[in-house]
Amino acid sequence: MKKLLVLGSTGSIGKNTLDLARAFKDQFEIIGLSSNCSIDELEKQILEFNPKAVVVKDKEKSAQLKQRIAGRCEVLSGDEGLLEITKRDNYDVLVTALVGFAGLAPTIEAIKLKKRIALANKETLVVAGELIIKLCEEHGAELIPIDSEHSAIFQCMVGEQKKYVNKIILTASGGPFLNKNKEELSSVTIDEALNHPNWKMGNKITIDSATMMNKGLEVIEAFWLFHLPKEKIEVIIHPQSIVHSMVEFTDGSIKAQLSTPDMKLPILYALTYPERIGYDGVHTDFKKMANLTFFEPDFDKFVCLKIAYEAIEAGGTAPCILNASNEIAVDSFLKGKIKFTQIPDLIQSALDSIPADKAINLEKVFETDLKTREFLNKKV
Ligand code: MG
Known about the structure:
Elements: E1 2-7, H1 12-23, E2 28-35, H2 39-49, E3 53-56, H3 59-69, E4 74-77, H4 78-87, E5 93-96, H5 104-112, E6 116-119, H6 123-139, E7 142-145, H7 148-157, E8 165-172, H8 182-185, H9 190-193, H10 203-211, H11 213-225, E9 233-237, E10 243-249, E11 254-258, H12 264-272, H13 303-314, H14 318-334, H15 342-353, H16 362-379
Parallel strand pairs: 1-2, 1-5, 2-3, 3-4, 5-6, 6-7, 8-9
Antiparallel strand pairs: 8-10, 10-11
């Protein structure tokens, strides 16, 4: 029986994780859950899974939930609640499905306790990859990616040696605006941007997919997870999202991992690795696929992808500035305050105005995140 702490349990990855916990009741026990403010959904999850404790980020909602469930489980609140619940040594796997920078601090606590981190929160590696990887090595914590592309690469690497890797090839669906030209992008609406062709995901990552910043963040995530120079991380557009990513080896051979797009598969792998489990929830039928296509991304149209590669080059706190400015820009777009094409402009302005620090430590990461948010909040 594996004991799971699922942070971000009312989001898309969180719900998929609980679907799996429901399907494998004899394998997984839910120890703790968290949500920003969706207490109706969280209440249902509490009644079904009986966690020992839950966290609601919003303090008012947390108090409301406490009243409703009347002592059925402990209810914590705020960022301090997230830290408190991860510091308790009563779980085996932390599933971190929080959105954005918020995932960093709880992940560090779980690493210190030598837990397995099933990582869906890519921003943790984007802002502090160097520190997180070092901490994992120091404490002997396992970091297993849930992000489908990175899970694919991780699976392709099983039984292989890094010295034989030529490059990794991250596939990208291209999002809803793959076939729009650069000029058309300036007038797209929020609803159009939220309408992803292949994946049903939360709002933040769906907008990141539309700008292709999601792939930019994933390049940075891969850079830290697989210790490869950015020249060895290639992005290729694959609109069908069947090939989840590939690894090319020195002899020219390529391994790929494929399936119908469904996040349950990478989640399940992160929970069961190095074992696999009998599961028939996802079916892939090649006879029903018309074609699988691949082509080069347009860096001129998807500026965010270009900026992300540049942030790796700049190093230090630059990816942290990139991430914080992206979070503010995406939030502003979702609130109707800015146009879609202003997202990369704002990120670029933050990177141009805030000096990146080459040397990185945790204090600097938190400081840079805050500084960038303050800078951009004045602009939008
Ligand atoms: Mg992904």
